[in-house]
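Note to self: the last two entries modelled the partners one at a time, which told us nothing about the interface. This time every component goes in together.
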Amino acid sequence: MAEIQQGGGGGKKGGKVRAKKMSTKIDMTPMVDLAFLLLTFFMLTTTFSKPQTMEITMPEKIKDEDKPPEVNEKKVVTLILGANDKIYWYHGITDPKVEVTDFSANGIRKVLLKQNAEIPGMILLIKPGDDSRYKNMVDILDEMNITNMQRYALVKITDTDKELVKESNL
Amino acid sequence: MDMTPLVDLGFLLVTFFMLTATARPDEPVTVDMPSSVSEIKMPETDIMLITVSKDGKVYFNLDGKYTRQELLRTMGERYGISFSDQEVARFAVMSTFGLPIGNLKDYINMGPEERKNVNQPGIPVDSANNQLKDWIVFSRMANQKVRIAIKGDSDSSYPVVEKVVNTLIDNKVNRFNLITNMEMNKKPS
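The predicted structure of the combined assembly is written out below.
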């Protein structure tokens, strides 16, 4: 049933016309050329780095009847993100002393670690100014992760803060 | 010379790259993302992507063919624009767009080459006419599992990002992802 009929119908011997024996080697150069062309193409177009994401959770919107939670002002450190990648920061709320720093490892990171050691239960308020860039916001949130800050919030900048930045002249 | 091992390896690599390659969808804007040390990988499905470009325009994308179909139908109902079945089908395979809903119909009916030449004004996010809000609300209705990712350009100004974030918070989306590039060796020793 499943045999392959070999040798044709006739049982004649000798008179068979044999096909000329061909060489089994074929020229593979074009195939290999094409293969390497494809290889180069796919290698150059593949992007391996999958983008990273930073997960952030924002507080729920405060309803009108709710009062915003009150905190001790001694624990509050405010960071204002200004133009040209500057960070203005101050401790406390009444009569603050505004200082300026930047996003380098010796800038904001040192400030954060120092303040965190000095103030128990520090709360950071991050206020990106109107002339700050998106990169500044990502950088400061990243810095929070690096220095392992526990309590921080992204808050809208107030007019008082804008005044403070202007007055500081830094 | 016996080239067999070389050719074998060549084909192995071809197969590997062919299988791992994913076609990158063409996007109307190039976005230069800021970097972070975060190591969470971006999930591949159920993503709603809100792109903020350098010049402060907002673009929108949602994956999933069927979710997109449902999204366009509900959005059409909301704004009183009827989309034909063919238009819905074409929208389902489109990628990122940044147009007010009124201009969307013309854009859907364009060819792929024509679309590239369109100067997209961005999705309106002003408080008077916040269409992004409706895109978000109806996307979440079409696909409950959707995760929201914001892809912002390093140089886009904060007030635009703030508008997008506030739109999200107003719609009770308190958790979202910011897409960044990877950055190495930033942890303090």
